[in-house]
Amino acid sequence: MREGRAHSWLGDPQQRSASVENLQQRIEEACRAVRTRFHAVPKIGIILGTGLGGLASQIDQATVIPYGEIPHFPESTVESHTGQLVCGRLKGLNVVAMEGRFHFYEGYSMQEVTFPVRVMKALGVEILLLTNAAGGMNHQLQLADIVIIEDHINLMGDNPLRGRNDDRLGPRFPDMAEPYDRQLISLAQRCALELGVSAQKGVFVGVAGPNLETRAEYRMLRAMGADIVGMSTVPEVIVAAHTGLRVLALSIVTDICLPDALEPVEIKKILAVAAEGGERLARLIPRIIEQLDRLPPRQHA
Question: Would you say 30 and 73 are in contact if contact means Cβ atoms under 8 Å apart?
Fold first, then answer.
């Protein structure tokens, strides 16, 4: 829950080989479907996580495309994910926003989960903004806090780049020294300060789900250096790095995961907290976007 045509491209080895060879074709077909209804070139791609879809209502001149009308898009099977692409303008910039993402735990392959990121890149997106709901393992975190992800740990058991590489889409061995753009992180911190919104940096660990973690697992993840845990985001960020996108990712702490004070999680409470944090993100993200044109060129590590 923290962060569906229901068949996999990658069911057997023969299909897997064919799907890798035809990935570029599938991307182009999805792009054509979007471009027939949204003619502008988007600069910003946004992926909205569990309970965080409210930002899409701020998009002006919106064109709404259900995922089922975009070739090769999966369908979200998570109740709190609307399942549509919202295209338009936000703070004067062209954007495409996913109201609802796809998860590994839904049964999709990593390539399916990350397919929309490749479509966004092909549409012209340069900067990817992601949000998610996450469990807070750092004792300094409170419910509905915003965490600006500065790094991640991949414990999802798979990688979206596994298999044959298409050099047209990105390098065989993409560098991960700076998957989360430092300048975007600094911009987010500055905008949060201007708005009086509490936001701190943290390390996100991605797990497969869908079950939440045991007390022992929370202790292990915290000892590894993670501040927050969730079931999304890492695959999309890996593909974003592969394609050369600049990335900013923001988490809302929807449950507190302190092993010695662990309580059973109620999904209704998670969604309520996500909505509270979502109101803060709905203020913060537009402020970030309106200042993107003043962002200096990317600095590489």
Answer: yes
- Which residues lie below 8 Å from residue 186, measured CB to CB, with a gap of 6+? none
Please name the amino acid found at residue 83: G
Q: What mean pLDDT, rounded, does the chain reach?
A: 90
Q: Tokens representing 9?
A: 């491209």
Gap between the Cα atoms of 292 and 286, Å rounded: 10
Neighbours of 268 (CB within 10 A): 8
Determine the 3-state secondary structure of 145 from DSSP: coil
10 Å Cβ neighbour count for 216? 9
pLDDT bucket at 294, cuts 50 / 70 / 90: confident
Q: Is the pLDDT of residue 18 over 70?
A: no
Is pLDDT of 81 > 60?
no
CATH of domain 13-294: 3.40.50.1580
| CA–CA gap between residue 216 and residue 46 (Å, rounded) | 34
Contact 271, 51 (CB under 8 A): yes
Alpha carbons 32 and 256: distance in angstroms, whole number: 43
* Burial class (CB within 10 angstroms; exposed 0-12, middle 13-18, buried 19+) of 14: exposed
Residue 151: which residues within 8 A CB-CB, separation 6 or more? Answer: 179, 180, 203, 204
Give the DSSP H or E segment for 115: helix 110-123
- The DSSP call for residue 125 is -
pLDDT given at position 175: 96
Domain ranges of the chain: 13-294
pLDDT confidence bin for 5, thresholds 50/70/90: very low
